[in-house]
Batch of 4 targets.
Target 1
Amino acid sequence: MTLLVSAATKFDSTSCQLLGQFHLNGMHMTGDVVLGGLFEIHFFSVFPDLSFTSEPQQPTCHSFDVLGFRQAQTMAFAIDEINRNSNLLPNVTLGYSLYDNCLSLDIGFRAALSLASGQEEQFILDKTCAGNPPVVGIVGDASSTRSIAISAVLGLYRVPMVSYFATCSCLSDRQKFPSFFRTIPSDAFQVRAMIQILRRFGWTWAGLLISDNDYGLHAARSFQSDLAQSGGGCLAYLEVLPWGNDPAELRRIVDVMRKSTARVVIAFAHENLMINLMKEVVRQNVTGLQWMASEGWTAATVLQTPQLMPYLGGTLGIAIRRGHIPGFRDFLLQMRSDLQHNNSYGNILLVYYLEKVNFTTPFGDQVSFDENGDALPIYDVMNWLWLPDGRTKVQNVGEVKESAKGEELTLDEDKIFWNFESKQPPQSVCSESCPPGTRMARKKGEPECCFDCIPCSEGEITNKTDSMECTSCPEDFWSSPQRDHCVSKKTEFLSYNEPLGICLTAASLLGTFICVVVLGIFIHHCNTPIVRANNSELSFQLLLSLKLCFLCSLLFIGRPRLWTCQLRHAAFGMSFVLCVSCILVKTIVVLAVFKASKPGGGAHLKWFGLLQQRGTVLVLTSIQAAICTAWLVSSSPAPHKNTQYHNDKIVYECVVGSAVGFGVLLGYIGLLAILSCLIAFLARNLPDSFNEAKLINFSMLIFCAVWVAFVPAYVSSPGKYADAVEVFAILASSFGLLVSLFGPKCYIILLRPERNTKKAIMGRGTES
């Protein structure tokens, strides 16, 4: 569309004529330097239908906008105040030319071009057809979309444009908009301010609503970009939902809000779109939401009604910095305008000086522009208060401003009204925090803040909220039932305090006591035939060795120590070899006595006298001593903390060190026992006077049976139960030998003394 044309016509060569004019609503005041302005004085515009056969009629505007008119009057007041102050621009009078854009891009563009080129029908120019424009700069536009379009054209001619309400971060691009400035922070800072508030209250899951225009779309990009640059942390948005005025689209958006777990909704829009959105919110009765308002609707009084406060009460919003302007009220009562206008300074020079602006307002705020034409950012944080009498109030509860440390948020939380029963900030998270004892597991395909809480495995803990991984406990520790701290592992060994240990200890002491009693009986009746028969010294040695066997079982009870591990098997091996050696010698003596009782058999007893018996026992026991010594020196048994049986327990046990050494020790005892059993078996049919061979044979069968069963039971028993099996084998074999060899003799000595005579033993001593 050709808006204006300047050309040499029937006038002289130094004059230019406009071929057409726009009919615009505006007010003007003459001055040496004229500033232009674009304001929303009316809400709606009507364009007549095009006939293409005649010149189109001019559009008309309707519905007076009080706020836009007040903003226009504010500019007029500011210029009047500057003209009154002789210290600011001495000898220079400012004028203005303010136009109504009727909230339309078409009309706003026409007004901007009219300001840049003028409305005069004829211009007298120099020979180069160049001259200064009617205005040196334009204040406006309020809309980001209109500012983008207008500034892109005016920037070609370096006509400065200073917006008071266009917040799109895209306008900070100095390559595209070289002469654009604004006194309001960009959406980028507004977005960062909102993210600060979200983090302040721990809101990690929020819905993001944006208007379907430049303002909303660029705000969404800034939101996504800022989250990405800051690493996001645990902060995500539900969905980017652009919307216009389509009823079906509004229904869908509100339905998503109603079903979502997000309790916080951020809306980047202007009040006209919010009005339509809230109608649908009321229709679906979507309550319990914490709204966060962009500066586009924070101060919208049309939304602060008793009907909407149940839904919007407690809203937190980012608002443009406010302040009281002295004398402005009186000025609004005056209506001064002038259709004349003049020009004086160049556009490029004005752009230069705008970049150097730096002053402090009467409110204490600093005003200057950075390299992108943006003012130093500062926003008020507003809260929509719902009073008990039904009235509404928007109160200031803090501010966000740029500082050397970055964006600085200041909030007076005690003043904030929360529209919830608890009167406390709501929780707005995709997933609740994971308590100690659990870890976060991200949900595939969903935002970072959506996760499941997985309990830590056994042996692992977390002692913090929202831990990403569980930590393994140290070796001697295990996780508590709640998995939130490590506790010392339970220790397990055959203890004197547990029932099994008590029973085995009692049995060991009982066996020892019986040995002492039997020994006392034999000592007291040492001169009786049944004691003296078959070498009483061997009987005493056998009783002593049995007592040692009973006592050595105590070394297997209690917490394993190095000395107990080394001593238990050595004592066990020595005690049983001494015992079996005595039984073997005793069996050989039985055969020797039988042979000596036959004619010419005295030589047999001569070669196996008392000295030989002692020597045999000593030699056989010394061999076991050598085996034990070699075992302890080469690979000694030692205590060991075994964690293989139970993850949550430490099983204290004695490892044998050398399995070969332990096998040789047991094998040697078994060899002597088998040899004794065979010799006793050969002597089983001796005359009744020498039937002790039957008792020895029976006792050896019991001994061998116990230890043959011991080996598989010991190998298959874990931990303390292996020790219990070995103690049981020691006690069972010891009791078997004690009862089999000494039970019948004690019976005769104590209960049948008439049979404890030489005649009975030599004649028919069936029990001796």
Target 2
Amino acid sequence: MFILVAFLIPLLGITGTIYLGIFCAIFGYFYYYVKRQQNVWHQKGIKYCKPKFLLGSLEIIRSKSLAQIIQELYNAFPEERYHGFYQFLLPTLIIKDPDLIKQITIKDFDHFVNHRRFVNADDDPFWSRNLFARRDEKWRDMRATLSPSFTSSKMRIMFELMDECAREFVQHFKSQNSDTVELEMKDTLRRFTNDVIASTAFGLKINSLKDRKNEFLLMGAAATDFGYIRTMKFLLYTLSPKLCQLLKMKIIPTKVADFFTVIIKDTIKKRKEKNIIRPDMIHLLLEAQKGRQHPEEHLDIDEGFSSVSESKLTKPNEKLEITTEDIISQALIFFLAGFDTVSTLLNFLFYELAVNPDVQTRLRTEIQSVDEKITYETLLKLKYLDMVMSEALRKWPPAIATDREVAKNYTIEPTKPDEKPLLLEEGMLCSIPICAIHRDEKYYPEPEKFDPERFNDENKHKINPLTFIPFGAGPRNCIGSRFALLESKLLVFHVVKNFEIVPIDKTLIPLVMDKYQINWSVKGGTWLGLKNI
């Protein structure tokens, strides 16, 4: 480059030379800045995945799915407890050791309270107000306020509403008088989760299998479609949050936010006018808005291996002001999370049952042993169902990774002879690759095999809790895990009781992941048959 500049100077004249000098100075500073940002792990003396200039360790034009890329990053240094990589210019530490995960997510939680910030609160208030995006004390207060809505006793109250949706789902396909109904499962299951959340959270009665283009469903699909364009937006958030703020980019599309704002405001208005009470999140937030806090109450019942417990972090802040915007934001993120993650889990669970007929047969035998109408307590007592659900969550965790931002300087002390203290400065990011940990043969022999016996009474106690984290770990685990598990188990119960799930001509065996989606997604869809029994 310097030879080219020297050649051009005599040709450009004084003005041209000045402009060329300015360009070279800007380019030189930019080059120096990028190289300095991508030199952090080298300076700290730890192993790291070599970054490409500006792009970091990730592929911007992917040749494989994000889950596969995370798996490769995880496997780069198999003997290390942690190592570095770069998300564009952001130095990120990938955490692989269960004890270190426990330190970061539980023991030293105060140093790692927050997820990474994406957008400015003023630019996207619907995103920044929700529980996932909230930070520090604002997160603690809102978590404590919402927790009572997700106790086991609240789940039992919601059970009948979920059960009704599951029965309608089964009846829809029973009524088609076909020996085998062929379905693209992800779309079909999204319709089920859409109806469940509409009922249990918003008090709306929707049948998305019949009303196939209802606005509730279409808005959910629009908000959760992480195709190539939206993936590029997320990459831009990673590359330059300040540029995203300047461009006022949003996580939640405006049309989605506007739609749910109207629905939730109308729901709140009707409930206040007619004194309607439903055991759902909107009701709880309305109660909190009035200053009425509800103590948590749990039923003395085994909720299964996959259930996570709530940390006793803080008591609800009685002075916390819950605005209508807060209610809208929490209800919206609850819908979006449940709409896609639960349907994704069920999608892969049904696929595994189709290609593992011995597992499906044993599960059906257990389910058919229930003679009476299914109840909340009876459902949770089905051991093999819980084993199947746990194995699906292991192999196909709804979130392929999670993160923690360093809130204040933290030192990882050495535990191996070749380690030295590692100082993590405020603002750095730690990444916990859930999908890769769940498929590490150190913890799960033959990790690609779908084997519910990993979670039987004899084996489940051998599993390190920090190597099974489908809903995250520590105080910032998924608040809706009980809801997701109950909804999923209910549908599996009713479907397996009434149908045999079978592969069809369109079924991809093995599955091929869609490289353009952020989360688990099958290229061309997951096609299966529901065969009447």
Target 3
Amino acid sequence: MRLRRLWIRHRNKFFIAVLVVLFIVVIAPSKSISNILKLEEKGVIYVDGERKKDYHDYEYMKLEALQKGPGEGGASATLPPELEKEKDEIYKVNGFNGRLSDDIALNRSLKDIRHPKCKELLYLADLPNAAVVVPFHNEHWSTLLRTAFSAYNRSPRHLLKEIILVDDASTKDFLGAKLDNFLAEHLPIARVVRLPERWGLIRARLEGAKHATADVLIFLDSHTECTTNWLPPLLDPIARNYKTAVCPFIDVIDFENFEYRAQDEGRRGAFDWEFYYKRLPVLPEDEANMPQPFKSPVMAGGLFAISSKFFWELGGYDPGLDIWGGEQYELSFKVWQCHGVMYDAPCSRIGHIYRKFAPFPNPRTDNFLARNYRRVAEVWMDEYKKYLYMRQPGWLETDTGDLSEQLAVRERNKCKPFKWFMENVAFDLAKSYPLIEPPDYCNGTIQSLADPKLCVDSKFKGQFDRLDSLGECSQSSQFQFQLSAFKDIRPLKSHNCWDVPDLKDKHAPVLLFGCHKGLGNQMWKYDMMNKMILFGHPPSHCLDSSVTTREVFVTTCDMNSPTQKWNWSFVNAERLRNYDTLDPKP
């Protein structure tokens, strides 16, 4: 009787409870369920059925905003004049302003230059942990440590398992016991692995990867700085598919004043048919989807993340690649052709010091670069390798060494042909970098008619690589140029072009700058009838010289000036007659 009375009194509440449960479990769509469910744990929420999290360390960001001192916020800094001599001495052995770096905090703050939407993005709550691998050879003390501290300070503690610094036979004393002791006291998560002799960048990375125990390998250069929330955007795509490599956006740390600034806001990695790294535009659908990760055919080089499992399935780097060069192509081709995918992640930004000059001598006497390139071509590029050899026939004379291990990697993983890569991944590469380039407009020597024994000398000189001299004419490569199909002038077989960025001076200098095939301040034309080399679009200035000082420069065109008259040793008259109608971007 008592149970019956209770049932009668509370049956309406029971029916209501049952209806609510049925609604949540059976009737409500999955999105409604995810919205109804509240926080499972601190900082974790369900979004479309996925457990996600905001990984920003807001407390650390607040502390950074209060920091004061040289270079804080990524601002440029300077040294007082009395330190100029000390600065120069350190500059010579680093290729950047190491003395200024020493005055900047190891944990300096950086401005947040990410896409605004990056601040709102959430990442999977369950991400793999990572090992950061940093190879170095005679790296400067403060830049090396700033690399390690920036990676550590701006990473969630549970996601960064270890930092492995790989010493490639450094000779600087402070990179020995002093470094070990400093890390043990201030950054115990980091340790140094020392190589017995100079192995080079590629094998140093490989050795560091062998010592790593984390789920994901992240390779950084030894003079970089990781920015706010840099790590989760690299790990999230790998958590979804372990056959994935992810590259950050690489920003610029100025080698002179250490200002942190953007390099660009995203372009896809590529190459030309001499294995120079190039960039392709972001696809329209990726531009519309910014700042989500987008697919990229080729990585820029030394800054990327890859799952340890996938890296070793691919055989790691080819251990037959020596010192540096070619490794970015080898690993990129392997990732794509062996059923993986590669992304650039706009919300992960890392700054890099591009040295003013390379301070280290070549550690080899042979042409290791040609051998590296040929090893990559022979293993991965199939019939497309012939387009490399068309431009660099000397590579065919290089002994590749044993390729059996690398060919076995390709067979074991049932990797796709290079034709598939070109048609499905780098499908627009040949539009910008044709398999067979159209012929030059002119090439050979550029002879001065004011003094026919003098020719333009391709040895660029001075702080900004200025073309500033005529020399005694010769058929040597030093005096060979080409007015290419892209309407630029470059030393023969070079990827640096004549560039005139400023016409304010009466005698504007001609600089050597990376060819961008974008016309503008690299556009030149040869006037066959008047023997003049015209600059600009429309042409407003001409190449001129002083036969007395042997200086070469650009100035206002003067049809009557003999110093503005030039003879090319080869002229393609038919192409020059059609110069104005030919597209410089085949």
Target 4
Amino acid sequence: MRRCAARRRCLPARETRSVAERQSTIMRTGISLCLVTLCLAARSNKDPPTVTIPDQGPVAGREILVTRAQRAIAYLGIPYAAPPVRFAPPRTRPLPEWQIVRNASVFGAACPQSRAHLEKMHRLFADALPEQLEQIKFDEDCLFLNIFIPDGTPPPDGWPVMVWFHPGDFVAGAASLWDGSVIAAKQKVIIVTVAYRLNIFGFLVISEDGLSPGNYGLLDQVAALDWIQKRISVFGGSPGNVCIYGYDAGGISVGLHILSPLSAGKFTRAIAMSGNALVPGAITKLKTHEDNVLQLATKFDCDKNPRRNLLACLRRLDAISLAEEASDLGSWGPVVDYDLYNASSASGAFLPKSVDDLLADGHIAKVDFMAGYTDMEDAFYYIDKSINWDKELTRDQFENLITEVIDEELEELNDNDTCPINQQHVYDAVIFYYSPQPSTTDVNVLREKLMDFRTEKKYGSSVYKQATYISKVSTTFLYRFDYKPKKSLLNIPDWAKVPHECDIPFVWGMPYWPSLSNFLWNNMDRKFAEHVMMMWANFAKYSNPIQTGFSIKWEPFTEDAPGFMILDRNFNMSDSTSVDYKAFNFWNSYYPKVKDVAKSACCNMTAEAISLYSEHYVTKFVSFIAIIQYLINS
């Protein structure tokens, strides 16, 4: 036995070596931790990423940590046009310039709008991230875009680019709400979020002498696409691989860019989510704009005539006050603007014809298209009504809620015509189609049919119709989003499926947003978000949401094989039991004839109109009118 020092525990030789090894390991670990700390400190203190934008100047962005192994670089608040002149197209020559490095680590101001409408239109953020909404500042100098770039070396052709047009019914919204760092880092694409002018600032129409042709918000988007084409390469992006995508008003914008001659050649793919060029209300009636302007003239004591004086008065008003009053009036949106320009400047029009005419004439950009909607889009529209949806929905309420929606649409047909439309006739046709058969008072059945009515009328039939045209010239994919989150950011009743906005957390990878890290996400929701982000990015990269090697097959949509991908726990293509194709044909083909006959019923109904209509469901009314007309003529 070896000697041991006094007052010291005697250990076997093996254990003594073990202690020495442990001490050495601790020492090495300590040194390693120190080195890591020093490296992290050095990294945090290093100069921010900097890029010089041609014709503008240098900008310094910031790194965003998405996961331990994934980062993105963000360049925020970059002007793509000069501060706008109120009620005039965006100015891009020259662009804003600067010599010293511009701080691009913070968002720019949002375009003027009503804060109350911003919260109303963005229920998701109002519930989950209210502080983000509260921090938004408004200013007319708002034509900025934000760029989120994946970490690493871009491919030889550059990163694919996805350009986001935000939702908000063309009345509210902000590019700064959308954190593109997660998609950029995980899917290796560049995300660009674009601010554009809203409500009266983006869409004021005064038709007299071409004073204000409108569509400024859409022209802002075109200017942003121009900027991206010319400058995204300095950020590592590919100008030849640009996919535009948007939701709600952003989806309508996408659908319209496919038709506008001003947007041609500025993007290669397009995704329209819960909105498209044919969704009811996508195009605002000129009379609506005129009524809105006259109400504002009264409110702010502006001279109504001549209109030039009215325009000058509106330009002098405080921006926020004007935005709040204008937002309360309702619709401010895109118009067919060709005839609103002077003959010499008509080439600047965004829409030379109606959407239906452009589609029918084949004025469609040859860009691959993906579009869809959620399974119960307007559920919140009904949830907000004072009805106990679990117990109280009666047959009378069911019919009244349908006629309310139809009334809004028929108002424009009545106008001041001496022959008003027979509204009851239209009600009867729609209620006949959506009434459960056999008849029932079951709340669950009535509620389901009511939700089908609203979703199919507004979203399903319109996206189906636009896809029918686009699929003739480009590869087209359609989907319906049926996945209801296990743990939602929104308070969704048990009976509701997937309302408007409830798909956004998955498309935008919100389970990985740093600002939502305290929310206890369900693992299945996280996994589903990964799948959805990958599909959207795959379409942006390759024109196909599903790549080789996956067991899921997403068939392209064609007129002869009009399939939808049903996005749920199990990804399956639609069939006649999962999608009501007959409902789409009802709204696209039959319903217009119902309105035509109802309009002509009290006037001079033609034999052709009677023949067309009598082929369908509600024949008794037409037969009665035909008999009366026959008796009068004889």
